[in-house]
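Researcher: Final request for today, and then I'll write up notes for the group meeting. The sequence and the SMILES for S-adenosylmethionine follow.
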Amino acid sequence: MESVQTKTWDFTDGRDDSILVVTVQELLDADSDYGLYTWPCATVLSQYLIHKKMWLKGKAVIELGSGTGLAGLVALRCGAASVLLTDHAEKRKVLQNCQSTVESQGYSDMQVCGLTWGHFSPQLLNLRCKVDLIIAADCFYSSKDFEPVLVTVAYLLETNMAAEFWCTYQVRSADRSFDFFFEKWQLKCTYVPLSEFTEDITAACRNGTTNPTEIQLMIITLCKAQD
Ligand SMILES: C[S@@+](CC[C@H](N)C(=O)[O-])C[C@H]1O[C@@H](n2cnc3c(N)ncnc32)[C@H](O)[C@@H]1O
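Model: Predicted protein-S-adenosylmethionine complex:
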């Protein structure tokens, strides 16, 4: 039996004492789809987007593995010109739940579509040169997904050398490393300490079961974009 619930976050920006209230829809007791629940990584990424709100103004943003779409909604509310929320093309329930959040809140500059990592689908090819910022929260939970995510990211970055990929990652095993794939796809990664953008990391995570120090924020660009 499914039950729909709305979940609301009050994000504070200590620099100007503003509060951003964002609500998403979650489906509980569903068939354990990871994308029907909002993960702590999404809260941390949202806090970073708020920290970078001046940079975000007017940008075209795409979110990979959006799930409930929290980070994408925050990007739009921070002034992004458009946000495309995407998730696995076969995760109909996840995409419908996300669409329902978008429609119920009347966001006209936001769209939802299926986009599977590592697939060169018409949806991905249509995004050529149209993306300034790619975001993703908790999309590296399985090591088998590292390369498909990074292939999709590298393709989009190639079409706009000034674009960046901002993602949060929960360290679930110390044995995992991205370095091989960064080198293979000629990507450069910079880690941003959480203390740089949130005073209270525990509040940002909003989930007592997650140790906030396990979450990392990575900024990924093409190596040649830095030359
Ligand atoms: C751990 S959840 C994170 C959801 C959301 N970003 C958050 O942090 O709350 C991972 C998400 O990636 C999506 N996903 C899994 N495999 C995928 C794939 N191959 N292509 C695209 N999305 C995928 C899942 O459906 C899910 O929404």
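Model: The CA atoms of residues 10 and 21 lie 5 Å apart. Residues 34-35, 38-39, 41-42, 65-68, 87-88, 91, 94, 116-117, 137-139, 141, 148 surround S-adenosylmethionine (CB under 6 Å).
Researcher: Thanks, that's everything.
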